[in-house]
C-alpha cells in the first residue's frame, strides 16, 4: 500500500487505505445535462493527511472514522494542494467501520480475548 507522503500530483494507479477524518457537505451541480454530486473529505493514513474528493454514490458510502481502501486512484493538484480521487477508473471500498485504523488493530487484538472468556463463561 502507498503512503500519503509518497503521493505526487499526476500519479495514477494509487492503491491506499485511509481513514476518513472529516467530511464536508455534498454539493450538487449540473454538467452536460447531468446532476452530479461532489464532497471533499480529509483522510489520514496515521502519518499524513490529504483531501479526498468523493463523487456521487461514493459520498453515501463514507462517514467520519470509516477506513476506506482506494484502488486505482488518482492524485491531482488544485491551487497548489494535492488531492486524491477515485477518478474515472478507480474504486472505493469500505474496509473498516467507525474506527480509526490504529483503534481498529488495537481493539481486534484486545477484544477477542475478553469476549472469548466472557462467552466461554456464559455457555
Gist?
This protein is an alpha+beta fold.
Order of strands across the widest beta sheet? Answer: 1-3-4-6-5
- The helix-strand sequence is EEEEHEEEH
pLDDT averaged residue by residue: 84
CATH architecture type: Beta Barrel
Total domain count: 1
Q: State the major sheet.
A: 5 strands, mixed, barrel
Q: How many individual β-strands?
A: 7
Classified in CATH, the superfamily is Nucleic acid-binding proteins
CA gyration radius, whole angstroms = 17 Å
Helix tally? 2
Main CATH class: Mainly Beta
Give the class from helix and strand content and strand pairing: alpha+beta
Multimeric status of the protein: single chain
Question: The CATH topology is what?
Answer: OB fold (Dihydrolipoamide Acetyltransferase, E2P)
Poorly predicted runs:
104-123
> In what range is the share of β-strand residues?
over 45%
> What best-fitting shape do the alpha-carbon axes yield?
globular
Q: Termini, distance in Å?
A: 41 Å
Amino acid at each position: 500500500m502507498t503512503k500519503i507522503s509518497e503521493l505526487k500530483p499526476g500519479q495514477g494507479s494509487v492503491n491506499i487505505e485511509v481513514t476518513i477524518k472529516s467530511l464536508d457537505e455534498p454539493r450538487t451541480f449540473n454538467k452536460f445535462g447531468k446532476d452530479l454530486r461532489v464532497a471533499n473529505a480529509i483522510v489520514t493514513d496515521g502519518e499524513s493527511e490529504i483531501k479526498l474528493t468523493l463523487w456521487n454514490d461514493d459520498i453515501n458510502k463514507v462517514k467520519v472514522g470509516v477506513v476506506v481502501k482506494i484502488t486505482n486512484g488518482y492524485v491531482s493538484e488544485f491551487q497548489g494542494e494535492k488531492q486524491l480521487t477515485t477518478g474515472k477508473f478507480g474504486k472505493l471500498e469500505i474496509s473498516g467501520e467507525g474506527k480509526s485504523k490504529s483503534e481498529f488493530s488495537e481493539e481486534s487484538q484486545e477484544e477477542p480475548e475478553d469476549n472469548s472468556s466472557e462467552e466461554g463463561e456464559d455457555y
